[in-house]
Amino acid sequence: GARTFILHDGPPYANGHIHMGHALNKILKDIVVKSRTMMGFDAPYVPGWDCHGLPIEHQVDKKLGSKKREMSIGEIRRACREYAARFVGVQREEFERLGVLGLWEDPYLTMDYSYETEIASALHGFMMAGLVERGFKPVHWCTSCRTALAEAEVEYEDESSPSITVAFELEEDARAALDVPEGTPAFAVIWTTTPWTLPSNLAIALHPSFEYALVEHDGALYIVAADLAEATAGAAGWEGWKVVRTFRGDVIERTHYRHPLVDRRGIFILGDHVTLEAGTGLVHTAPGHGAEDYVVGQLYGLEPYAPVDDAGRFTADVPQWEGQHVFAANGAIVEALRERGVLLASGELGHSYPHCWRCKKPVIFRATPQWFIRMDRNDLRERALDAIEQVEWIPRWGQARIRGMVENRPDWCISRQRLWGVPITVFTCSSCDTPVMDEAVFDHLCELFREHGTDVWFDLPTEELLPRGFSCPSCGGTTFDKATDILDVWFDSGVSHLAVCDGGRWNLRWPADLYVEGQDQYRGWFQSSLLVAEGLKGEAPYRQVLTHGFVVDADGRKMSKSLGNVITPQQLLTRYGADILRLWTAMVDFKEDLRISDEIITRNADAYRKIRNTIRFLLANLADFDPAKAVPLDAIGGLDGFMLRRTRELARRIVAAYESYDLSTVFHRILNFCTVDLSSLYLDVLKDRLYCDHPDDPGRRSAQTALHAIAGSLLTLLAPVLSFTADEAWQHLPGEREESVHLARFATLDEVPEDAKLDTRWERLLALREVVNRELEGLRQNEIIGKSLEAQAVITGDATLLREDLEATGARLAELLIVSNVVF
User: Distance between CA 486 and CA 477 in Å, rounded?
Assistant: First the structure.
């Protein structure tokens, strides 16, 4: 059989109609798959959809309204399943309209029972390897959707936050370490843009080796980083301040300060994450509300304290702001600091802040009980970094991008507090609180899921989900609680290479040859796929990863309803047809952002028309051609032979460009060939032979044979991009051949013999033709002649080489120059 080539489809979300990003992505994949098929590979394309998760649950929530309160979890999940299935159908039709070929009748869906079982099985694999554990840690939390979010579900948007500088009074041990004179007030100065986290402050971090200054102002002493003393004094509006002494950060480690809002002391700690880029060089630390704060807090035994509920409101632990949303409480907290005389400076700061990918509202960091895949257990992180080196990343910078992300990413929070997804299949013993990690239990669950889907987890009581007679391996207990969280959808799609390429009903193979997605997938699907593969198989799930840019408007701005610059694939399909849209993806370097506008598409349509008109001319002049009377290609000489060699060279270059995913070269070379080599030269010169010679004249037969071979080659080279046009023209090409151009191989005309010496002679003749054309154009402009046949060409000077060229090529000079006569 043929060699296989597997492009594995990253699943779009089964929600809403497709947008330009979807169209670009699917067309690129289609061009790659079709071109590989035409190179002789077996390249099956199995499309897929991501069907679980928050966006769908949101839409269903909206639709159900208050009715949702009377429904069981199972009923709500079934409503989500129906919603996803509907949009799989909608998007499938829209993708097919773009000319994308694939196994549309048998796609993979992450909500298929078989796929859900594969997800559960992968989770069990991670659990048995000891990579999954429960933790109480700060995670991105959306207070609107009331769930944890993964790194990949967070979008950064610019917004304005309060920026405040606050003084914390030193306790006795810190004063002693710094020899502060008795009776002199002394403070540590911090800066923050999240005043709402101050009630959760447990520590202040300094850098162990930075130099800190004790600054005197107005009879009080303040600690700031020596390098930031001037900036801090400026912000606080201090006149006449001076540095009393300097010291290293570690001098006050493990001493204490008083909290300005809450009756407790905090501790001074050290951390390498402290920088001198902004602020005061002392970092307010709330281990329940920040990833770095949590990590450094662990070293000092600080708990991840987060007195905030699921809706983002302060709990009873913060009585003065209990029930207030944290963002709403910012102003009151700043006022309280002002009243206590510890607010040194306040203002606003514009910066990039994390928002929820779904509801677009700002998120918070909040410590909650979650399930995590531990990045540094079993060398998972190191192994993933090694695997990145084995993959070919296109463009090259992709490697550094994903490498940096994997190096720095926190543990993977895989739990979500929602309903529509694959459950985290963990039972906890009611007696000893130990999670059950048992092969027999996992196998039993997978059997249930294979038959009934994961809904049974929510529908059946715990005892019916466990094997009969199961007891706790730790204490022998027989009652268990089941987890209520579901899995992060990035884990769902991260399993796709196992569900589709490795197992599954499609007989593909693992690893895939290629992943093709937008640049946002370095932190999304590329990473989740890599971590799942590395955790369970020990190597990367892909050999090559190709990324494309985003679709933007003519000014390079993101498309958004608010800007009113959204163009939809549906609009373009209706106005121009699919091939114009397909051509747009191939016209520019798709590795950068792709601009689109009516003007750009109109320019595209012009280029398309030039190619289409060339094809129409070829077909019109082959209408009476009988391939049975064709001249053997290796016997064709003259201009016909030269054009066949040019076509062969074009085909060689085009196939190489397809192979290296260089689609703009494909487009520009073909357009240039159609407009320059064919329209302006060959077809122009041929008109006489085609229209005036006898149908059976050897010269006319030679020309038609060449045109037939050129047309056949050109249509195969165009087919991956202009799929509809090429296939339609293919049906009009005389002779027996494959039913569709998409079943053919690239026609590279290998049977045409090469002849470099002869081609050099032709190049010289064509250079002469250009000189003559310029002269003729001048005569036309001055209305001395109308048509070029009204002129004759006079050759002066030494024509020896020209005569040799004419003899060797068999060129008829008057015909080539399209003049009535040539005089030497």
Answer: 25
**DSSP codes joined into one string, 282-324:** -EEE-TTS-HHHHHHHHHTT------B-TTSBB-TTSGGGTTS
H helix or E strand, kind and range, residue 691: helix 683-692
Q: How far, CA to CA in Å, does 706 sit from each of 632, 641, 749, 757?
A: 10, 7, 11, 20
What one-letter code names the amino acid at 131?
L
Say how many CA atoms lie within 13 Å of 582 toward its Cβ: 27
Measured CA to CA in angstroms, residue 425 lies from 118, 262, 444, 462 at distances of 13, 41, 11, 11
Please report how the helices 20-38 and 578-587 are oriented relative to each other, as an axis angle in degrees rounded to 10: 80
The whole-chain average pLDDT of the chain stands at 91
pLDDT of residue 150: 72
Domains, the chain, ordered by start: 20-104+493-576 (3.40.50.620), 154-358 (3.90.740.10), 579-754 (1.10.730.20), 758-823 (no CATH)
Percentage of the chain beyond pLDDT 70 is 100
Between CA 410 and CA 260 the distance in angstroms is: 31
Give the H or E element holding residue 136.
strand 132-142
Does the CA dihedral 218-224-225-230 come out positive or negative? negative
Question: pLDDT by residue (tens digit) across 349-404?
Answer: 887 888 988 788 889 899 888 899 999 999 999 999 999 999 999 999 999 999 99
Burial (0-12, 13-18, 19+ Cβ within 10 Å), 179: exposed
Q: Tell me the whole-structure pTM to 2 decimals.
A: 0.81
Query: What's the confidence (pLDDT) of residue 208?
Result: 82
What helix, strand, coil percent values describe the chain, rounded to 5? 45, 20, 35
Q: Which residue type is seen at 805?
A: D
The three-class DSSP label of residue 190 is strand
Contacts of 68 (CB under 8 A, 6+ apart): 61, 76
**What dihedral angle (degrees, nearest 10) is formed by the CA atoms of 395, 401, 406, 409?**
-150
| Strand 154-169 to 343-356 pairing | antiparallel
What average pLDDT does the segment 262-280 reach?
88
Is the predicted pLDDT of residue 152 greater than 80, yes or no?
Answer: no
Q: Which residues contact 696 (CB under 8 A, 6 or more apart)?
A: 629
CB neighbours of 767 closer than 8 A, spacing ≥ 6?
none
Instruction: Show the tokens assigned to 721.
Output: 């991009």
Q: What is the pLDDT of residue 504?
A: 76
First to last CA, the chain: 61
Secondary structure element (H or E) that encloses residue 525, with its range? helix 525-536
- Using the structure block, give the residue that is written with the tokens 């960091």: 365
Residue 166 near residue 187, CB atoms below 8 Å: no
CB-based contact 689:623 (threshold 8 Å):
no
Distance CA 619, CA 707 (A): 9
Amino acid at 679: S
| Helix and strand totals (H; E) in the chain | 27, 27
Which residues are 353's β-sheet partners?
A: 157
